[in-house]
Write a structure and sequence with these properties.
The protein contains 8 helices and 9 strands. It has 253 residues and is α/β, with parallel strands linked by helices. The termini are far apart.
Amino acid sequence: MAIALITGTTAGIGEATAHTLAKEGYNLIINGRRSERLAKQAKELNEKYGVDVFEMPLDVRDSDAVSAFFDKLPAEWQSVDVLVNNAGLAAGLGCLENGSLDHWNRMIDTNIKGLLYVTKAMIPLLKVTRGHIVNIGSIAGKEVYPNGNVYCGTKHMVDALNKAMRRELAEAGIRVSSVNPGAVETEFSIVRMDGDTTKAKNVYEGFENLVAQDIAEAIWFILSRPRHVNINELIIMPTAQPTAGVVLRDKNL
């Protein structure tokens, strides 16, 4: 049975992807900082789909913790076929002049460094299985919008890394893909608004946004292609969002 490692599975796109791949018969290595939620999720996935689940309860920003996890990974879990680099966040919506250094560091450390730490550790395993990496980017990695500055910068870096990985790993038979969503209603905006649920709710009012399952199904489509097919990247937007900084609200789209 194939094994998939998904980062950031305790909510949103990561959670939906875990359920989607478990339904398709993947054994899972699931990751998150919230250990209680992770344990609950592991039990639910096992009971609902009959798959084996191994927990990775750590913050991907901690390079030592990531290395230690893979150093101790049991042999039966080392034949990983799929890595989904999903862990990521946005913090704040300020201009550069008034930007928060804490917000900047959290985004850079999670969206870029965390992805790099996990990918570096996984490459030797994926070379054995000739596996598949799926990086979760964003429309913010293709376009820039007002006050998105550093977040857009981190996702542009993910876009560049996706291309670099695909070129570097081609000879090893490792496929590399990315999914770049527009507005997806998850905990994303709650985190971005520092927990202000009212502001977060307003982000998604007046139009039909994407949901996490939309992206999970796109990931499964990528993974389900024949061996000779690689989907380099997908950009997925709500119908009401024609471009990164524009949402057509109350238009019945």
